[in-house]
Design goal:
Layout lengths: L2 E8 L2 E8 L19 H13 L21 E8 L4 E8 L7 E7 L16 E11 L15
Parallel strand pairs: 3-6
Antiparallel strand pairs: 1-2, 3-4, 5-6
Amino acid sequence: MESDDRQVVDGGIMTDINVSAARTSLPRFEEAEPLGPEDAEFVRDLAAVLAKHGNLNRFGLCLLHDHFPIAPDEVLVETNDSAARTLRAHVEKADGTQHSKASQWRFLSHALEGQDAEPTGGSCQVLMLCLTQDLCPGGDQRPKGPPRP
């Protein structure tokens, strides 16, 4: 499997990320099992770990899934239009994207075996990058005035 290793700024720390075809192993949205009542103990345990490390208001859960394949040299990026209150996710070439802050990750199974325990050591794979500035198409044509609540 080919991959594109590059560095991004993540929380002020320069981090190596691996953008690879491994993402395609995620289930399609229609097949992904949502959070359910049987996950209550898991959610409590995860919330306790996040609280223990002061990350309860920093990280949460998302349903990992794919809507379409992403090539090994591509990355999913998120942009926003705060005036229109919209988010847009699209694919860009990994070596040409301006997006530099990771916003979604998935855990890699080898991390559970004690390997690469450091946050920048490969225990997570970046799934999405984003910028905090408005980059959605038409964003330059937003009406002037105060931001919407």
